[in-house]
Amino acid sequence: MSKNNILYVKNLNKIYSKKGNKSIQALNDLNLQVKEGEIFGLLGPNGAGKSTFINILSGIVKKSSGEVNVWGFDLDKNPRQVKSSIGIVPQEVNLDPFFNPKKLLELHAGFYGVKKNQRITDTILNLVSLQDQAGSYSRSLSGGMKRRLLIAKALVHQPPIIILDEPTAGVDVELRKNLWENLKSLNNEGVTIILTTHYIHEAEEMCDRIGILNKGNIVALDTTQNLLSKIKTKTVRFVIDNNINIDNGEFENLKIISNKNNELIVSYEKNKLEIEKIINFLVSRGVRITDISTDDADLEDVFVKLTKN
Ligand code: ADP
Ligand code: MG
Predict the structure, then answer these.
(1) What is the CATH number of domain 230-307?
(2) pLDDT band at 127, cuts 50/70/90?
C-alpha cells in the first residue's frame, strides 16, 4: 500500500447469510483508499452497506473476504492494532446517563488502557465544546451535546483516524453546522476523518473526496469538486443524419464539444437547460436525430434516488 494511504481496502466482500433466508451481499468487491489527513465521505442511501463497512473496520462485523489495512496494520493479522488506530462514532447514541462527560471519558480511557498521566480529557472536552458540561449528568445534555460526547469518546486513545457513521442523522440544522465545525477543527489537528452519510449536502460541505455506495457497490469515487461538476453538467451525444452548422453561443447555455461525421456532442448545465429544448432546437434547424446517448446516467440515477430520501 502506498505510504500516504491511511486506509486501504481491497476486494472487500460481506455476505450476510441467515438460515432459511436469502443471503444478502452487503458489500460487493469494495476497493477504496483513504489518504492521511483527508476527510473522506461514504455517501449512499439506506441499505447501501455503509454501516456494514464501518462495522467491519471496528471489528463488530466479520468480513466474508478481502483485505483491509489501517495505518499499516492488516485487519486479519493485527486486529488489535487496527482497533487502536481508529476511533468509532456509532450511528446510535448510546451513553450511560448517570456519568458526567468527564467521568465517562476517564472511564473510557481506562478501558483503552490509557495511563492517567497520558490522558487528554480536558483537551478533548474543549475540542468538542463540552468543557462547560464536564460535570453535568449525560442525561441532561442536549441531543447535539450527546453526539459531541460520542465523538469525544472516540478520541480518548488519540487515534489517527476517526470514523463516524451518519454523525448528523436526526440532528437539527444548527447543531449539524456546529458538529461540522468540530470535525473540521479535529481534521486541522491532523486527524483523518471518514464519515458516512445519506445527505448529499453533508458530503458536499465536509468532504475532500466522496465515494458513492449503492447496493454494496462503489458507483463513483472522486474529489467532491469533480463529482459536483459531473453532476451539474451533462454531456449528450447525438447521432444525426445530416450535418448542421452550429456555433458555440448560438443556442443559449449550450456548449458544442464536437460536431463532425454525423456526430454532435454537446454539454450543458442541468439547471440551465433541458434536453427537450436542445432536441427542439436541433429539429427546428432541420436536423434528423437517429440516436441520443449520455455517459453519466448511473451517477445521476443514484443521486436522484438519494435526494428523494
Ligand atoms: P447502510 O448503513 O448503508 O444503511 P447497512 O450496512 O446497514 O446499510 O445494510 C446493508 C445491507 O445489509 C442491507 O440490505 C441490510 O438489510 C443488510 N444487513 C445489515 N446488517 C445485517 C445483519 N446483521 N444481518 C443480515 N443483514 C444485514
Ligand atoms: Mg447505516
Answers:
(1) 3.30.70
(2) confident
